[in-house]
């Protein structure tokens, strides 16, 4: 048994306390799938004199309040669908589940550089991604009660690619979760 992809009812952004992060505007728009949220300013990479790099990153997006129907007590997998326009220079930083205000399980951020992916013939993450899957529990032992908890959800954050100096906006169209039951 499988649910449809379900959008969150609550979405908020949290800035990093140790590092200046770029905020999102119109963030509630990515609860539906007909509008866009976007970064307040472009993410950027700056090359330094000694080849050091500075990369910007976004505020964390915390999505909770998924009304997930309980089709069984036995969960087999969780999928997170993210539709983002990243202009090929924006990379994942955090793609992780949350429960009780804490990050839980594996971080599925794809943080490979463009050069490494090219040299090893690995496809880069694109604009439409499904993280997790029908048999993937993200390294957790979540129960149906956990998924019904209003604090259950997903956390996302993005960063600029470190390879080439650039400035690019990021746009998010939709964030949604799907649950597979045994």
Q: Could you report the average pLDDT, rounded to the nearest whole number?
A: 86
Query: Which class do the helix and strand fractions yield?
Result: mainly beta
Query: Order of helices and strands, N to C?
Result: EEEEEEEEEHEHEEE
Distance linking N and C termini: 6 Å
Helix percentage: under 10%
CATH architecture: Sandwich
Quickly count the helices.
2
Radius of gyration equals 17 Å
Strand count, sense and closure of the main sheet? 5 strands, antiparallel
Poorly predicted parts: none
State the domain count. 1
Describe what this molecule looks like in 3D:
The protein has 182 residues and is mostly beta strands. It has one domain: Jelly Rolls. The protein is 6% helix and 41% strand. It has helices at 114-119, 144-148, and strands at residues 10-14, 24-25, 37-39, 43-47, 53-55, 60-64, 75-85, 90-99, 102-104, 128-132, 153-160, 166-168, 171-181. The strands form three sheets. Strands 1-6-11-8-9 form a five-stranded antiparallel sheet, with no helix packed on it. It has a five-stranded antiparallel sheet with strand order 2-3-13-7-10, with no helix packed on it. The chain has a three-stranded antiparallel sheet with strand order 5-4-12, with no helix packed on it. Strand 8 (90-99) and strand 9 form a beta hairpin. The chain is globular and about 55 Å long. The model has no long low-confidence stretch (mean pLDDT 86).
